[in-house]
Amino acid sequence: MPLHLIKLAVGCESVRELKGWVAERMQTAKKKGLPLHHIHITRMTPKRVDEVLAGGSLYWVIRGEIAARERIIGIEPFRDRDGIGRCRLVMQPRVIPVLPRPMRAFQGWRYFADGDAPPDLKSAGAGVAAMPEPLRRELRELGLL
Q1: Domain ranges of the chain
Q2: How far apart are CA 65 and CA 3, in angstroms?
Q3: pTM for this model (two decimals)
């Protein structure tokens, strides 16, 4: 069973904006001739690498909700110019919206068990997936979604 990570998408207001950030980074990588992977650098390296790489995703919290995920395909520890340990989370550059679920703010990233992960949004049906994100958020807050 895969193990996931969960992290705040600081400064991001919507899944649409997150998709735009990833697309912009892919354009830059393509121009530089780099592999087309979304890289997120974090301070701590997961200890349970094998479990995360066994199909895990990075779940993004946006505006207090678990809102999207990207599949993790690599974890690369390294030292920055100042000698500080860091980690590259290498992901497929495909942002997958999930059925929103409230999540309080926290620092860094956390492990996220497969059984705790919300399903992909498309599993909720075409009508819900086609709704604008603000409408889904409001309906969820009212307990209707």
Answers
A1: 3-142
A2: 19
A3: 0.86
